[in-house]
Design a protein that fits this description.
The protein is mostly beta strands. The protein has one helix and 34 strands.
Length: 347
């Protein structure tokens, strides 16, 4: 523990002081901007430093970090040199950047690594599980996956609780976090689902399973995709070339080389098709779509809401999105009007 304290003090000494807030408009020349989350979006300056803007385009956390993720449970992962820590929504350092890798917070905890072993920390950076695990996954529903060894001595994943007690013995090649009482695991080259006691709930017959959403999960068999329910019933046959998760009773599927929308009864929504898409409906009634390397937006009816004219774009959150056109970033509303100067970015 003394070694971690020494590293922490050294990191604090090298932190840059906070600078006065920047005005709106300063994000216009950003190298990149991420999705808004909890009212803030990470942006990267032309020099490669990361800061955060609010939904009014104002810089509220100065670009002093070498990298940064979106906010999750009031914390954002930030990078200083080769190490990671966490800040709060005011930009205050709550966990000093002393970890060589770090995940997002989930259920009040985050997995971090010192380069050789993984640990679990609380929102203030206190150790919940000591750095003595090979790999720790994402905490959820009282359990967290870990990498150990199976009965044959091979590397395998199982699950532990917050006391570090093994609840499900290591036996899986891959293992996800639990959601609604189910976890997706891989055995051999096939995927299935288990419950919190380690019992097989969905048989190992799929080449891949994506997380459940709105009671359905994408599954792959022989290079085609369909959907199962939480009981394992195949409710939409594996007939699509690609498929995304359901949000607001909408999912993107790929057929004949293009994407279109369906509902949970496999009805086609709208008539438009796209070369590629984003999975945005979970946070907005608009989703990004791509055609001829340009980004636009469609609504839940599959209708074009904003034509694909943007070079880059974030998803809509709380009625705002950032879009780039001709090298300039704009903060737009769902009609495509820039909220800072009234420019019609669709013109």
């Amino acid at each position: 523990m003394k070694r971690y304290v020494a590293i922490l003090l050294a990191a604090l000494l090298c932190l840059a002081p906070c600078m006065p807030g920047l005005a709106a408009e300063d994000f216009r020349s950003a190298q990149s901007i991420d999705n808004f989350c909890d009212g803030l979006a990470a942006f990267q300056t032309e020099s490669g430093l990361t800061g955060y803007i609010n939904s009014r385009g104002e810089t509220v956390i100065e670009p002093v970090w070498d990298g940064g993720s979106y906010f999750c449970e009031g914390r954002a992962r930030v990078k200083r040199g080769d190490c990671y820590g966490y800040i709060d929504e005011s930009g205050n350092i709550v966990v000093s950047p002393v970890w060589t890798s770090a995940g997002n917070y989930s259920g009040g905890y985050a997995s971090v690594s010192n380069g050789t072993h993984s640990a679990l920390i609380d929102p203030d950076g206190n150790l919940v599980l000591e750095p003595e695990w090979n790999v720790l996954g994402t905490y959820s529903e009282g359990l967290i996956s870990f990498c150990g060894t199976d009965a044959s001595g091979d590397s395998a994943y199982g699950y532990i609780n917050l006391d570090g007690e093994v609840v499900i013995e290591p036996q899986w090649k891959r293992a996800t976090a639990f959601s609604n009482g189910l976890a997706i695991v891989e055995r051999g080259k096939l995927y299935g689902c288990i419950d919190a006691a380690g019992n097989e709930v969905i048989p190992f017959i799929y080449d891949h399973i994506d997380p459940f959403s709105e009671g359905l999960a994408c599954v792959e068999q022989e290079d085609l995709w369909g959907y199962i329910d939480e009981g394992g019933k195949l409710v939409i046959p594996c007939k699509y070339e690609g498929a995304g998760i359901f949000r607001k009773d909408r999912a993107w599927v790929k057929q004949d080389g293009a994407y279109h929308l369906i509902d949970s009864r496999d009805n086609t929504i709208g008539t438009s098709t796209w070369s590629n898409v984003y999975l945005d409906f979970g946070s907005s009634d608009l989703s990004r779509v791509i055609q001829d390397d340009r980004i636009g937006y469609v609504n839940l009816d599959g209708e074009v809401a904003l034509r694909p004219v943007y070079d880059r774009a974030t998803g809509f959150r709380d009625g705002v999105a950032c879009v780039q056109r001709d090298g300039v970033w704009y903060l737009i509303d769902p009609s495509g009007v820039d909220l800072l100067n009234g420019t019609d970015t669709q013109a």
